[in-house]
Amino acid sequence: MSDESNADNYYRLMSRIRVIFENGEPERVIEFDPAQAPFQHDGQPGSILDVLLGNGIWLEHACGGNCACTTCHVIVKRGFDTLGEASEQEEDLLDKAPGLTPSSRLGCQAVIDDPAAELVVVIPRYTINQAAERPER
Amino acid sequence: MPDNVVQRGARRVYQGVIEHVTAHNADTRSLLIRVPEVNEFHFVPGQFISVAIPIDERRETRAYSLALSPQDGQPLEICLNLIAEGVGSHYLFGLGPGAPLSFTGPFGLFTLEHPREYETVFVAEGTAIAPIRAMIRHALGTSGHPPLTLLYTAADQAHLLYRAEFETLASQHPNFRFEQRVSASGRLSALLDEIEARYVRADAGRERHFYVCGVGNDVLRVRDLLRAAGYARRAVEYERW
Lengths: 137, 241
Fold this sequence. Notes:
Number of strands of chain A: 5
CATH topology of the largest domain in chain B: Rossmann fold
CATH superfamily of the largest domain in chain B: Nucleotide-binding domain of ferredoxin-NADP reductase (FNR) module
Largest sheet of chain B: 7 strands, antiparallel
Number of domains of chain A: 1
Oligomer: heterodimer
Distance between the termini of chain B: 34 Å
Order of helices and strands of chain B: EEEEEEHEEHEHEHEHE
Mean pLDDT of chain B: 94
CATH architecture of chain A: Roll
Radius of gyration of chain A: 15 Å
Number of strands of chain B: 12
Strand content of chain B: 35-45%
Low-confidence stretches of chain B: none
Low-confidence stretches of chain A: 128-137
Strand content of chain A: 15-25%
Helix content of chain A: 10-25%
Largest interface: A-B, 25 and 28 residues
Distance between the termini of chain A: 37 Å
Shape of chain B: globular
CATH class of the largest domain in chain B: Alpha Beta
CATH class of chain A: Alpha Beta
Structural class of chain B: alpha/beta
Helix content of chain B: 10-25%
Number of domains of chain B: 2
Order of helices and strands of chain A: HEEHEHEE
């Protein structure tokens, strides 16, 4: 490996998400390289849902991550501006989400644009998120 | 709670059984699903269920709208077409009566529970009629609903699903109009000009409520046409598959 590629790897930017669960589960911290998206197959590539599922954190997404429900609703406490803008379709759905806040997003649509993003994301209590509910593998 | 219903956190996983399969045409079927020992499965017309699809050693889910109304009771009905690369539809097309089907739900916010204040216009294409059929059956079984119009397109008569049922309902309910359109594409884009002529240019009235369901960006084009014409944002509801 050349010195140049070593340097590229060393300085490659990593994004970070701190995930807080309102239901009391221990919080998790994920570091990831957005350039590696998609991390699995549901939701927009590079979205919060994509990153969480790809890193072993289950976030409900009853419609398959296709922006047709609000079960992947998350509250972005930090780093909101590092996300791509919400579409009108996402806003229409968020209007109907229980517990809507000004920093609410649908996890399946909120794509992390900044390669060095630092996000803090809260999974609301009413967003089903328990280990027992992970799809059987 | 019966053995075939498992509570996992805030949601329930139901183990149903396919009671009957209806072939609408060569590539479209309805699965009628009974959940034994469950008297009532509560949902709102327009909602969907997430069906477990075993893929290799994984288990994924696919969302399917319920095509009957809550008043219809069991069996529940989902309607789907065979998609060339669709693992979910291929799996479900391989199931027959007696096959088990695991699902969670109901989910979804594209719903019609109580009669709307104004004329309600439903716009659909192909299998996207499923949630709208549930809404119409529910509305027609509810007193005090405003005039209802269904504008429905498909590529041929065989893909205008539930056509005879809608024709019968229209003959029985003076407040319900069924307008079927065979179009080359079978897509909502084929209805855009008609929607504009009837609901934008024909009058200045903007007291209507729309439910639009279809595939892809055509749904957004219908939404944008109506909202840009002055219909309230919340009067134009849609589900994009």
